[in-house]
Amino acid sequence: MTGVINRPLQTVQPFSLFSSGDIALFQAGSHYRLYEKFGAHTLEYEGVPGTYFAVWAPDAAFVAVMGDFNQWDHYTHTLLPRWDNSGIWEGFVPGVEAGSLYKYFIRSNSGEVLQKGDPFATRWEVRPQTASIVHPLDHTWNDKKWMQGRKAHNSLNSPIAVYEVHLGSWRRPDPANEELYYSYGEIAAMLVPYVKEMGFTHVELMPVMEHPFDGSWGYQQTGYYAATSRYGTPQEFMDMIEAFHQAEIGVILDWVPSHFPHDAHGLYRFDGSHVYEYADMRKGYHPDWNSYIFNYARSEVRSFLLSNAIYWLDKFHIDALRVDAVASMIHLDYSRERGAWVPNELGGNENLEAISFLKKLNETVYALFPDVQTIAEDSTNHYGVSRPTFMGGLGFGMKWMMGWMNDTLDYFKKDPIHRKWYQNDLTFSLVYAFSENFMLPLSHDEVVHGKSPLLYKMPGDEWQKCANLRLLYGYMYTHPGTKLLFMGGEFGQTSEWNHKGELDWHLLKYATHKGIQDFVKDVNLVYRQSTALYELQFEAEGFEWMTVNDYDNCVLAYVRRGKAAGDLLLIVLNMTPVPREQYSVGIPQGGIWEEILNSDHSKYYGSGVINSGPQKAVKQFYNGREYTLTLRLPPLGITILKPVTV
């Protein structure tokens, strides 16, 4: 398809979708629907079909649109600069229809010549090609039931168990051929029923925005407004989201407002000047990722990013945005040596402009879409990341609990014979667990770059590794906070994640790995069905230690509570491979208790040390509690019990 209709092309017609109000909001950093104005929009002007183009290039002396409709000529279709000094170049080009390839030819005031893709393009060519594509986003949605009831699925007192996925490497048509991908539709046909069967409530997609380099996993983007063409069209991506919604599964997108790459067709030095990035490379260059940092002090850049967040929520019905690399945004000295960064106007290390932008972002998102969530990936102790802006916070709905993840994995890596000396490291997370609305992440970052898969972080022989991993998952699901698990972890992937291949699905023919998968499925079910595990997951009232000082036996016990009186669960962890028979636990109420989950059950490839039948609590003061329950504690296992009668 060439994108050309049979009519002689005319010159660019003066035309604009911008009102004076749009310009004022754009220049104030408050416009959140720029995607309705910028980019390429097919329409009719004076009865003639064509495409309206608009691009922001404030330091350009000349801008033309070139494409397959004019044999990529640099001068045929010159865009017109607006009279209001907004830096916007625009115009209507008759005869250009959907499917046309295009770029902007820009001559800077300095004389430099550039060829750039459209920052607002809704579709791009498949890499390594770099042209933008004129592509309308027309779509008839069929997810009304989900959208009307979404608040109940997304609220902070609902169960949120997230399956993190890289679409290209979850499954491949040919695992040995990294150039072959399934389409959005083919992925949806496999992934949606799998996520549903496993019991996850949400899926989180690593960045799907267009990016030139596969090895960036999507975190180095050139097309912020385009779902990657690797797997199909934007509408096919919408169909996939719709399929998740029809299965009552929420969709979270990784969103990257922190940095972008230096590819020649991308945002870097867009018009020959530092348009989107800080001009001072002590603020504008990211040494870790060889990328460039958005200029959060520039109002037009704030409008670009703000509109981008709203775009995915508006046009694609996305249910949450996980904001990547927040720590690098809000700290001027992030990964920089002394002298390589510039303090702010107050002499501190905080990027005040980025903090201001994030507050504006969250205020706007929750005002327009009160039933979605924003989730911060932040590894620092910055105050109030998930607290409202009127309380001085950043306004996110949730924050990744990186401290829990690091401390927990460090503990589980240790041989059980040494764990009693490190138990306080494990329990430390409860000291600060309610200072933020935390999500517990076991993400892709923990299974790459030589860190080994989760299963091989565990000590011991094969049985102990599997038991430790089931215990880890049981601990995560019963610890306060929402949950996130990266693909492959649910069945004990034995190799590090590689974006060029696919997951080790063949492992499921082994009972060890099938047992891990079945346990994750069942612990997801217990989490979703137990109000005690999620109604107060961000409140101190929802958690209470029962046994926290039995260092010699490496046993921990705690109660999780829901809002209703008597709605509680007892969780007991045995961090050693030694079964504990007749182990006494002090508990707050008597009656009959029953075990609802045990990670050592034989169906999970455990040794079968379970508590079958009713367990009666006796009126006996123990460890500061009025009642005592005597249990069998499974080796390297977790048992979860609920009261049946009082």
From TrEMBL:
SMART domains named among the record's database cross-references: Aamy
The protein's enzyme class: transferase
UniProt keyword Transferase present: yes
Record-level Gene Ontology MF annotations: 1,4-alpha-glucan branching enzyme activity; cation binding; hydrolase activity, hydrolyzing O-glycosyl compounds
A cellular component annotation (GO) from this entry: cytosol
Family: Belongs to the glycosyl hydrolase 13 family. GlgB subfamily.
HAMAP family from the UniProt entry: GlgB
Name assigned to this protein: 1,4-alpha-glucan branching enzyme GlgB
Higher taxonomy: Bacteria, Pseudomonadati, Bacteroidota, Chitinophagia, Chitinophagales
